[in-house]
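Standup notes
- DV: blocked on the single-chain target, sequence here:
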Amino acid sequence: MGQGPDWFWDVLDATRPRLSALEAWLQAQPRRILEEFALAYLDAAESLTDFSEGVRVDGADWSEDSTEDLCLWVVGQGHRFWYAVITGEWELAEAAQVYLGCPSPLSGEVIRWDQVVSDPEHRGYQSPDAIVHGVCRTRFAEDLHERLSGG
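- DV (later): unblocked, structure below
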């Protein structure tokens, strides 16, 4: 199970819902921490389900991309929300209902991230999973995805 390091969850929980706060924290970190943050985020998301299998919501099977987006969003809701899904306390399909904005008993657990970033070059990276990629690009002129995948 992709639990990830405690510091990863601490950072998400401390900065949520202010994306600019997460952006500022990431900008102050060395490259190694940016890499570890990105890997922890993806690992936590991948631990929820095999994206290629999708998730069934209201009788419809979600695509691989939509399932990945959902899982990344679940991680962005912080450790408690992610843990409730990973342990089966909440079904991924229930989390999807909240993701879609439907009323749910889980709705009270959700704090939507704002999309405010301080650096205009980070527009287009305005989610908690993507901002680390924008920060890496502006600080180190590197594509973090390529760096992590060895490409």
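- Follow-up: DSSP finds eight helices and two strands in the chain.
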